[in-house]
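Field reference: sequence -> structure
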Amino acid sequence: MAIVYIGIGSNIGERQANCMKAIEALKSKGITVKKISSMHETEPWGLKEQPKFINMTVEAETSMSPEELLSALKGVEKDMGRKRTVKWGPRIIDLDILFYDDIVIDMEHLRIPHPLLHKRDFVLNPLAEIAPGKLHPVLRKTVEQLKEELACD
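Structure field:
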């Protein structure tokens, strides 16, 4: 079983309920959720003119490959009504693979660890709650160290 970390975000509709519904949907796909961060209300990133987000992260176990996990996450997003219109735009739900064990993947459709996680406080803050000592396999720094560095910027 692989240990994975998944970022969850929503800024349309009942944001908190959307995040919890996504976690239940992950469980229904055979993903075992082990830890859940608290919910953080955050400013939009990338495209500023939109509602605030609720962001959180989960630690989970899965027997899925990284590609199968990505497909499962995209399926949950689609089932929940996500429509991809504008990059970094409003969304009912957003699910991102942050880490998959210590694997590094750099393909056009799948990059693990998530290529922007070290630049996003809305990812690092909830992730640091559940995995402060998790080592980024490329940057060779813990989540807590990345969070502290970002706070200094």
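Note: The beta strands are 2-10, 32-36, 40-42, 53-62, 94-100, 105-106, 111-112.
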